[in-house]
Specification:
Blueprint (H helix, E strand, L loop, with lengths): L7 H5 L13 E6 L3 E7 L19 H24 L6 E10 L8 E12 L2 E10 L2 E12 L3
Antiparallel strand pairs: 1-2, 2-4, 3-6, 4-5, 5-6
Length: 149
């Protein structure tokens, strides 16, 4: 398995999210401004399982999209790291076109691969795919805005 490029402490210096909304545990690979591979270890302790669904926990699609969005923010950061420095901008997810192919359960490791379609200083267009092992579980086209800082 690949060594972590970013651990959770480094991720927290980039993303504005904190537990329970921080949905990226590690980044395995970054090709600056082009591609990122991130991991979310899905555990029975994740807060969304309390209500989705009692007795049959399934990771909500909105949480999968949020994990893909967070991986995409890390991708954006890799493109503009020198301009951002230690600042954490505000991000606004503006458009989502997602498709869910399989359920994600406690104990799964969600691997998210996000790729740049177009990256601008205040807007990003990305595609993301989520996998459990080698099985694709979701895909999305995301557009998000970045508040100038």
């Amino acid at each position: 398995m690949a060594m972590n490029v970013l651990n959770k402490d480094k991720i927290k210096k980039i993303l504005p999210h904190r537990e329970p909304m921080l949905l990226i545990d590690a980044v395995l690979d970054i090709e600056s401004g082009k591609r990122v591979i991130a991991i979310k270890k899905v555990t029975s302790e994740d807060s969304f399982f309390k209500g989705h669904f009692p007795g049959k926990p399934i990771m909500p699609g909105t949480s999968i999209v949020e994990a893909m969005a967070q991986a995409s923010i890390l991708l954006y950061h890799s493109a503009y790291e020198s301009k951002l420095g230690d600042k954490i901008p505000e991000y606004y997810l503006g458009s989502v076109k997602a498709r869910f192919l399989h359920s994600v359960f406690p104990g799964d490791e969600l691997r998210i691969e996000s790729e740049t379609v177009r990256m601008l200083p205040t807007t990003a267009f990305v595609t993301a795919k989520a996998y459990v092992k080698d099985m694709q579980v979701a895909e999305a086209e995301l557009v998000f805005a970045v508040k100038k800082i």
